[in-house]
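cron nightly-structures :: item 1 of 1
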Amino acid sequence: MEPIIFIVLVLIGYALGSAKLINQGNEALVERLGRYHRKLKPGLNFIVPLVDQVVMEDTTREQFLDIKPQNVITQDNIYVEVDAIVYWRIRDIEKSFYAIEDLQGALTQVTTTTLREIIAQNTLEQTNVSRSEMDTALLDQLNNITVDWGIDILRLDLQSITLPESVRKSREEEQAAVIKKRALITEAEGEKEAAIKKAEGTMASVQIISQALRSNPDTRDILRYLVAQDYVDASQKLGESNNAKIIFVDPANSTEMFHELINESLTQEGNGKKHENGNT
């Protein structure tokens, strides 16, 4: 009876020792007598106790590696601090275990080296503008190196590119100067357009007045009205000015002044008509 119990216990212990449960998303490596034997897939697997040994179990799901900020010098000799994240996964668990001693350490080192090399080939402006192209170049170069390690680099994101304080301040001043220049150009163009519109309006007004003077016999009254209106407008603008001065004009003298202006205008108009008749 005792031998039977002993055999049953041995069989139970053997079954427990030989059964290996691998979770979904993981894989494991088995060595037999110190040599690679086979790969265990997710689910229930059996090995030979004391002969077989599970030497590694790892995930085949996507993982990420945070690259610590690195001081890098660009092609135009500007030091920048670059922070990146690498997304990767194991494609061949056998290679990832036997081809490299410290997989994550090696991945960190090769990513850092490649990152510095790529940025050193670009100026600061190129680094900021063509960040997506740099990500692609880094990804291609890293995959060429890590293909023998049995892993795939899925994505590489440059999280931030931090500039030195002096460079950042200089770029801010440059940007502010550009904005100010654009504002001045816009203002100058607006003033130019306004001046053109004003000149066109004045020209149109002169043409209308000239036509009215030629066709209306009461030119003296029209001129008296226009001169008086200009005098009132000028006085109003002078009053609105911060440097306004109060000018007192004698009504009697002002009437004489208006007559002189009207006579001068009529004289100029008459000379113009004589000149036209002489030409005809």
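cron nightly-structures :: done
The longest strand covers residues 79-90.
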